[in-house]
Design goal:
The complex is a heterodimer of chains A (197) and B (437). By secondary structure, chain A is mostly helical. Chain A has seven helices and no strands. In chain A, 64% of the residues lie in helices and 0% in strands. By secondary structure, chain B is mostly helical. The model of chain B has no long low-confidence stretch (mean pLDDT 92). Classes of the chains: A mainly alpha (197), B mainly alpha (437).
């Protein structure tokens, strides 16, 4: 059980590091688009569209990573005053709402992705870009998020039972600002180890 | 069940889960699923994935990570830090001066970015810790960043204005130009608010001790910090107004400018590019997941009959044209607390546009009022994107409660600005006439 949980958390943290690179092709493609149009005078038909397709995957893939790092914004006005154990209890109680959203997303995301895959769907543009790879990212991202949510639930149950919950397995436990690396210029996304006291 | 009752239930359940500390994305998404089920059965669920797909291949939303990347690069390269230091030298001796300097930087950032997040992220990272270090009141500082960040969508370029013009067919160039005057007006009002408040309550924002103030030589030397940012502003705005690039492409030009600025500061390295990319992915994911869920939520609300509710509210209004305008703005204010601006536009514009035409309001002028109300929506709890960006970068010790509490005076000041623009439409309409006639 713990080994599976650790694998899910590590996978999501790993994704957060590598998916970040996708900003470079997006940026370069758009810049090329402008340059080709005005400098060379011959626009390419695929640059802008490819950039959007990369962006689509980029925009969704880090949902599970964010959950592993407790990065999804919440309101701490009442919640922040609770003890760790009470927080875990509240999280368990509201978990079905999370599950509903992400499970429906996984299900419906798979529906549109598999439809798209079955026909190898392409766009209506001149380039006729393949849409199915980006669409597949909807169920993929939902699955990653759901898996991390299950890990979170498992961790919360352990907290309630008074068992140890280590961060490498269950993701960050304490409330922290979402974008840790902005403040510590030296450490990148490896700060998952030091959070809990 | 009637729309009114459903609306109450719909929004009521949001507030309950929000207070329970459930992440906002999951509250919006989960509540939408429940209501879609009761309204349409499982058939309505396809809306969830189709709305997500819509957002995923929207070229305009692609500008979000680009502008955020530009902002994080400017932060990590020290360009934004130098800009803040300059403001520190010039304004440090004034009570509340650092907050005024901060909103001044927000104006510059608004002119190089088309979203509200860029200025919030940079100033939340650089200016906020420094203001707190100097003994500034937490709420004064947080509110200033929240309010200033919102100008990103009012001062051109603006992604929301592009969307507004797509839906209403007003000229986006004119709309951009019309944002300049109101942007500067809001800057003046917010600065005046900070000055006056801190004059009477010096403890909120102490002036620097005389020994720490800069001499004139240092002050003038520090001015070179604006050169790089201004060059970025010129290239981004130049590309858009010159007709070379769409606002999204201009965002890529902004990133290019930020990379050049990083190099000019001698800080360009793979490490900086990579660290900024990681922060950008995290902020983008945070915003996009809320956005997906928010789109699902406004779709669910539309399915419940939101438009007919608003239609009912708008019919038989007392007070003639001004009554209608006030009613529209109040509706936007209330929706802005809960829904995202794109959802609000899609729900309200089909109802509002005929009213605007019937009363003979200038559509550009109405567009500016609309955009400012969206800006207010960005900073009003519980669902305001500036609040989330700020929470994403704020140093430990700043809670969501602090951030929520900080916005009240700034919202009032912004509404005062709305009133002034209503009374003096020329504030908005002078610039477009100057540029386009």
């Amino acid at each position: 059980m713990q080994a599976v949980a650790r694998a899910v958390t590590r996978l999501n943290l790993w994704i957060g590091k590598w998916a970040a690179l996708a900003i470079f092709p997006i940026f370069i493609l758009l810049l090329c688009d402008v340059a080709l149009r005005y400098v060379v005078g011959r626009p390419a038909i695929w640059t802008a569209e490819l950039a959007v397709l990369i962006f689509g995957a980029y925009a969704v893939i880090a949902g599970g990573n964010l959950l592993a790092r407790r990065g999804h914004v919440n309101v701490d006005i009442v919640y922040g005053t609770l003890s760790r154990r009470r927080k875990a209890l509240v999280d368990i109680a509201t978990w079905p709402l999370f599950m509903l959203f992400v499970a429906v997303l996984l299900w419906q995301g798979w529906e549109i992705a598999s439809d798209s895959l079955a026909t190898l769907e392409r766009s209506n543009s001149v380039w006729k870009a393949p849409l199915w790879p980006t669409k597949l990212f909807i169920p993929l991202a939902a699955a990653l998020l759901l898996a991390q949510g299950v890990v979170r639930l498992y961790g919360d149950i352990r907290v309630v039972l008074g068992l140890p919950v280590d961060e490498a397995t269950f993701g960050r436990q304490e409330e922290e600002p979402a974008v840790v690396s902005i403040h510590s210029h030296e450490t990148s996304s490896r700060s998952g180890k030091e959070g809990g006291k | 069940m009637s729309v009114e009752l459903l609306t109450l239930l719909f929004f009521g359940s949001l507030f309950v889960f929000v207070l329970l500390g459930t992440p906002l994305a999951f509250v919006l998404g989960g509540v939408s699923v429940v209501f879609l089920y009761f309204e349409m059965g499982t058939i309505g669920f396809y809306l969830l994935s189709s709305k997500m797909w819509e957002a995923m291949h929207d070229p305009m939303l692609m500008a979000i990570p680009l502008f955020v990347y530009m902002a994080t690069l400017l932060e990590k390269s020290g360009v934004a830090g130098d800009l803040y230091d300059m403001m520190h030298q010039w304004w440090g001796g004034v009570r509340g001066g650092l907050a005024i300097g901060t909103v001044m930087i927000c104006v510059i950032f608004a002119a190089m970015s088309g979203i509200s997040g860029a200025a919030v992220v940079t100033m939340g990272t650089i200016a906020l810790p420094k203001m707190l270090e100097r003994g500034y009141d937490k709420k004064l500082a947080l509110g200033a960043i929240n309010a200033g960040g919102g100008w990103g969508i009012l001062i051109p370029p603006s992604i929301l204005m592009v969307l507004f013009s797509l839906l209403t067919e007003v000229s986006v160039g004119r709309l951009f130009a019309a944002g300049i005057g109101p942007g500067l007006l809001l800057f003046a009002l917010v600065s005046a608010y900070i000055l006056i408040r801190c004059f009477f309550q010096p403890a909120l924002a102490p002036a620097l001790p005389v020994s720490e103030r800069a001499d004139w030589g240092t002050k003038f030397r520090s001015l070179k910090a604006v050169i790089l940012p201004i060059l970025i502003v010129l290239s981004v705005l130049g590309a858009i107004f010159g007709g070379f690039a769409t606002p999204t492409e201009a965002a890529a030009i902004g990133v290019f400018g930020a990379i050049v600025a990083t190099a000019a500061n001698g800080r360009l390295s793979a490490g900086i590019l990579m660290q900024s990319a990681v922060s950008t992915l995290q902020l983008t994911a945070l915003i996009m997941w809320i956005l997906f869920a928010a789109h699902a939520f406004s779709t669910a609300y539309t399915a419940l009959g939101a438009q007919s509710l608003i239609q009912d509210l708008m019919s038989d209004l007392p007070g003639g044209r001004w009554g209608a305008l006030l009613m529209m703005l109040s509706t936007l204010f209330i929706l802005g607390m809960v829904l995202d601006p794109v959802g609000i536009m899609l729900i309200t514009l089909p109802v509002f546009l005929p009213i605007v035409q019937a009363h003979g309001f200038d559509p550009i002028w109405f567009g500016i009022l609309f955009i400012i109300m969206m800006e207010v929506g960005y900073m009003t709890p519980p669902f305001g994107f500036n609040l989330f960006y700020l929470r994403g970068v704020a140093p430990p010790g700043v809670t969501m409660g602090d951030i929520y509490g900080s916005v009240i005076p700034y919202v009032l000041v912004t509404l005062l600005g709305v009133a002034l623009i209503m009374i003096f439409p020329e504030i908005a309409l002078y610039a477009p006439r100057l540029f386009f006639n």
